[in-house]
Write a sequence for this structure.
Protein backbone atom coordinates (compact mmCIF):
# COMPACT_ATOMS: atom_id res chain seq x y z
CA UNK A 1 0.00 0.00 0.00
CA UNK A 2 1.47 3.33 -0.95
CA UNK A 3 1.84 6.16 1.52
CA UNK A 4 -0.37 8.32 -0.68
CA UNK A 5 -3.18 5.80 -0.47
CA UNK A 6 -2.67 5.35 3.25
CA UNK A 7 -2.90 9.10 3.75
CA UNK A 8 -6.06 9.23 1.66
CA UNK A 9 -7.65 6.48 3.74
CA UNK A 10 -6.61 8.15 6.94
CA UNK A 11 -7.95 11.53 5.85
CA UNK A 12 -11.36 10.19 4.94
CA UNK A 13 -11.70 8.19 8.14
CA UNK A 14 -10.41 11.07 10.18
CA UNK A 15 -12.90 13.50 8.71
CA UNK A 16 -15.74 11.15 9.53
CA UNK A 17 -14.67 10.42 13.08
CA UNK A 18 -13.10 13.64 14.30
CA UNK A 19 -16.44 14.97 15.47
CA UNK A 20 -16.90 11.84 17.59
CA UNK A 21 -13.51 12.08 19.27
CA UNK A 22 -13.71 12.46 23.00
CA UNK A 23 -11.11 12.91 25.65
CA UNK A 24 -11.30 11.62 29.20
CA UNK A 25 -9.69 14.60 30.81
CA UNK A 26 -11.47 13.96 34.11
CA UNK A 27 -10.03 10.46 34.41
CA UNK A 28 -6.45 10.07 35.64
CA UNK A 29 -4.77 6.90 34.37
CA UNK A 30 -1.64 5.13 35.68
CA UNK A 31 0.15 2.28 33.91
CA UNK A 32 1.67 0.22 36.72
CA UNK A 33 2.49 -3.28 35.43
CA UNK A 34 3.26 -4.83 38.80
CA UNK A 35 3.67 -8.54 39.47
CA UNK A 36 2.22 -9.81 42.74
CA UNK A 37 4.79 -11.39 45.03
CA UNK A 38 3.87 -14.11 47.53
CA UNK A 39 3.38 -12.75 51.04
CA UNK A 40 3.49 -9.15 49.90
CA UNK A 41 0.97 -6.44 49.16
CA UNK A 42 1.06 -4.25 46.10
CA UNK A 43 0.07 -0.80 47.25
CA UNK A 44 -2.16 1.41 45.15
CA UNK A 45 -2.18 5.19 45.46
CA UNK A 46 -5.27 5.65 43.33
CA UNK A 47 -5.25 9.44 43.22
CA UNK A 48 -1.46 9.83 43.22
CA UNK A 49 -1.40 12.10 46.28
CA UNK A 50 1.36 10.12 48.01
CA UNK A 51 -0.98 8.28 50.37
CA UNK A 52 -1.69 4.60 49.76
CA UNK A 53 -5.41 3.88 49.37
CA UNK A 54 -5.73 0.22 48.39
CA UNK A 55 -3.74 -2.98 48.42
CA UNK A 56 -3.69 -6.17 46.42
CA UNK A 57 -2.38 -8.99 48.55
CA UNK A 58 -1.12 -12.42 47.49
CA UNK A 59 -1.00 -14.76 50.46
CA UNK A 60 -2.06 -18.12 51.82
CA UNK A 61 -4.13 -19.33 54.73
CA UNK A 62 -4.58 -22.69 56.41
CA UNK A 63 -7.49 -24.60 54.90
CA UNK A 64 -7.82 -22.16 52.06
CA UNK A 65 -4.57 -22.34 50.20
CA UNK A 66 -3.41 -19.40 48.12
CA UNK A 67 -5.43 -16.28 47.54
CA UNK A 68 -5.29 -12.82 46.06
CA UNK A 69 -7.37 -10.19 47.85
CA UNK A 70 -8.24 -6.64 46.84
CA UNK A 71 -9.20 -4.08 49.43
CA UNK A 72 -8.74 -0.71 51.04
CA UNK A 73 -6.02 0.14 53.51
CA UNK A 74 -7.93 -0.24 56.74
CA UNK A 75 -7.11 3.09 58.27
CA UNK A 76 -9.01 4.90 55.54
CA UNK A 77 -12.59 3.97 56.41
CA UNK A 78 -14.79 4.78 53.47
CA UNK A 79 -12.57 3.38 50.77
CA UNK A 80 -14.12 0.24 49.32
CA UNK A 81 -14.04 -2.32 46.56
CA UNK A 82 -16.84 -3.62 44.35
CA UNK A 83 -17.70 -7.09 45.63
CA UNK A 84 -20.40 -9.72 45.36
CA UNK A 85 -23.36 -9.76 47.74
CA UNK A 86 -21.59 -11.68 50.51
CA UNK A 87 -18.51 -9.52 50.08
CA UNK A 88 -16.34 -12.62 49.81
CA UNK A 89 -15.36 -12.09 46.20
CA UNK A 90 -14.18 -9.05 44.32
CA UNK A 91 -16.48 -8.36 41.40
CA UNK A 92 -14.69 -8.74 38.08
CA UNK A 93 -15.86 -5.89 35.88
CA UNK A 94 -15.21 -5.66 32.17
CA UNK A 95 -14.47 -2.80 29.84
CA UNK A 96 -17.61 -0.72 29.34
CA UNK A 97 -19.25 -1.65 32.65
CA UNK A 98 -20.12 1.19 35.00
CA UNK A 99 -18.90 1.38 38.59
CA UNK A 100 -20.50 3.84 40.97
CA UNK A 101 -22.76 4.27 44.00
CA UNK A 102 -25.25 1.64 42.80
CA UNK A 103 -22.73 -1.19 43.11
CA UNK A 104 -22.20 -3.37 46.19
CA UNK A 105 -19.11 -1.95 47.87
CA UNK A 106 -17.15 -3.72 50.57
CA UNK A 107 -14.98 -1.87 53.07
CA UNK A 108 -12.72 -4.85 53.75
CA UNK A 109 -10.52 -6.89 51.42
CA UNK A 110 -12.37 -9.38 49.24
CA UNK A 111 -10.99 -12.27 47.25
CA UNK A 112 -10.13 -11.72 43.61
CA UNK A 113 -9.17 -15.35 43.40
CA UNK A 114 -8.55 -18.20 45.78
CA UNK A 115 -7.22 -21.72 45.35
CA UNK A 116 -8.12 -24.21 48.04
CA UNK A 117 -5.81 -26.98 49.15
CA UNK A 118 -7.97 -29.43 47.20
CA UNK A 119 -7.22 -27.54 44.03
CA UNK A 120 -10.55 -25.77 43.60
CA UNK A 121 -10.04 -22.32 42.13
CA UNK A 122 -12.76 -19.67 42.52
CA UNK A 123 -13.28 -15.98 41.92
CA UNK A 124 -13.74 -13.82 38.86
CA UNK A 125 -10.08 -14.19 37.93
CA UNK A 126 -9.97 -17.99 38.41
CA UNK A 127 -9.42 -18.91 34.77
CA UNK A 128 -5.88 -18.76 33.44
CA UNK A 129 -5.69 -15.74 31.18
CA UNK A 130 -8.66 -14.03 32.84
CA UNK A 131 -8.42 -10.25 32.77
CA UNK A 132 -10.98 -8.12 34.56
CA UNK A 133 -11.21 -4.87 36.46
CA UNK A 134 -11.87 -4.36 40.16
CA UNK A 135 -14.02 -1.35 41.04
CA UNK A 136 -12.56 0.99 43.66
CA UNK A 137 -14.27 3.68 45.73
CA UNK A 138 -11.98 6.32 47.18
CA UNK A 139 -12.93 8.70 49.99
CA UNK A 140 -11.10 11.92 49.26
CA UNK A 141 -11.72 15.21 51.02
CA UNK A 142 -15.03 13.90 52.32
CA UNK A 143 -16.35 12.85 48.92
CA UNK A 144 -16.41 9.58 47.04
CA UNK A 145 -14.51 9.05 43.83
CA UNK A 146 -14.77 5.95 41.66
CA UNK A 147 -12.01 4.14 39.86
CA UNK A 148 -10.84 0.83 38.48
CA UNK A 149 -7.85 -1.48 38.78
CA UNK A 150 -7.07 -4.02 36.04
CA UNK A 151 -5.79 -7.45 37.04
CA UNK A 152 -4.67 -10.32 34.81
CA UNK A 153 -4.27 -13.95 35.86
CA UNK A 154 -1.36 -15.23 33.79
CA UNK A 155 -0.73 -18.55 35.49
CA UNK A 156 -3.06 -19.10 38.41
CA UNK A 157 -2.92 -17.52 41.83
CA UNK A 158 0.87 -17.28 41.56
CA UNK A 159 0.81 -15.27 38.36
CA UNK A 160 -1.36 -12.24 38.96
CA UNK A 161 -0.49 -8.92 37.42
CA UNK A 162 -1.74 -5.44 38.18
CA UNK A 163 -1.76 -3.83 34.78
CA UNK A 164 -3.00 -0.33 35.47
CA UNK A 165 -5.54 1.77 37.30
CA UNK A 166 -7.51 4.98 36.90
CA UNK A 167 -9.93 7.16 38.82
CA UNK A 168 -12.54 9.79 38.12
CA UNK A 169 -11.50 13.17 39.52
CA UNK A 170 -15.10 14.43 39.63
CA UNK A 171 -16.64 13.36 42.96
CA UNK A 172 -19.72 11.11 43.05
CA UNK A 173 -19.53 10.46 39.32
CA UNK A 174 -19.62 6.78 38.29
CA UNK A 175 -16.68 5.71 36.15
CA UNK A 176 -16.95 3.65 33.02
CA UNK A 177 -14.66 0.69 33.46
CA UNK A 178 -11.71 1.05 31.12
CA UNK A 179 -12.20 4.81 30.82
CA UNK A 180 -8.80 6.50 30.68
CA UNK A 181 -7.05 3.61 28.94
CA UNK A 182 -4.61 4.73 26.27
CA UNK A 183 -5.97 4.16 22.79
CA UNK A 184 -4.02 1.73 20.59
CA UNK A 185 -2.36 3.81 17.93
CA UNK A 186 -2.03 7.00 19.97
CA UNK A 187 1.75 6.81 19.69
CA UNK A 188 2.46 10.33 20.90
CA UNK A 189 0.00 10.03 23.79
CA UNK A 190 -1.97 13.20 23.07
CA UNK A 191 -5.33 11.42 23.38
CA UNK A 192 -6.01 11.42 19.64
CA UNK A 193 -5.14 8.98 16.90
CA UNK A 194 -4.31 11.23 14.00
CA UNK A 195 -1.85 12.01 11.24
CA UNK A 196 1.02 12.53 13.67
CA UNK A 197 0.60 8.97 14.96
CA UNK A 198 0.24 7.69 11.42
CA UNK A 199 3.52 9.36 10.53
CA UNK A 200 5.25 7.77 13.51
CA UNK A 201 3.91 4.35 12.52
CA UNK A 202 4.98 4.70 8.91
CA UNK A 203 8.38 5.94 10.02
CA UNK A 204 8.91 2.74 11.98
CA UNK A 205 7.66 0.49 9.16
CA UNK A 206 9.32 -2.92 8.91
CA UNK A 207 10.91 -5.41 11.32
CA UNK A 208 11.09 -3.82 14.75
CA UNK A 209 11.47 -5.36 18.19
CA UNK A 210 9.90 -3.69 21.21
CA UNK A 211 8.83 -0.62 19.34
CA UNK A 212 5.70 1.29 20.22
CA UNK A 213 4.33 1.24 16.69
CA UNK A 214 4.27 -2.57 16.71
CA UNK A 215 0.78 -2.47 18.16
CA UNK A 216 0.13 -6.21 17.98
CA UNK A 217 3.62 -7.10 19.19
CA UNK A 218 4.50 -9.49 16.36
CA UNK A 219 7.98 -8.06 15.83
CA UNK A 220 7.19 -5.91 12.82
CA UNK A 221 5.36 -2.70 12.05
CA UNK A 222 3.11 -3.74 9.22
CA UNK A 223 -0.38 -3.68 7.77
CA UNK A 224 -1.93 -5.27 10.83
CA UNK A 225 -0.68 -2.41 13.00
CA UNK A 226 -1.86 0.11 10.44
CA UNK A 227 -5.31 -1.49 10.62
CA UNK A 228 -5.38 -1.19 14.40
CA UNK A 229 -4.37 2.46 14.22
CA UNK A 230 -6.99 3.28 11.61
CA UNK A 231 -9.66 1.43 13.59
CA UNK A 232 -9.12 3.88 16.47
CA UNK A 233 -8.83 6.99 14.30
CA UNK A 234 -10.08 10.12 15.94
CA1 LIG B 1 -3.98 8.33 47.59
CA1 LIG C 1 -1.79 10.94 19.00
CA1 LIG D 1 2.96 -5.69 14.23
Amino acid sequence: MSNVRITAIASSIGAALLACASTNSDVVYVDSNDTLVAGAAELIDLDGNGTTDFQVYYGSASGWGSFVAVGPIQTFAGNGVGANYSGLYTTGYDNGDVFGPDEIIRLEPSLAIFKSNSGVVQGAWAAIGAEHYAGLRLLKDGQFHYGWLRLRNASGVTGMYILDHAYETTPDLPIMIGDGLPVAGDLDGDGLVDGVDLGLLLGAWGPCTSCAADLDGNGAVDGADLGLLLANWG
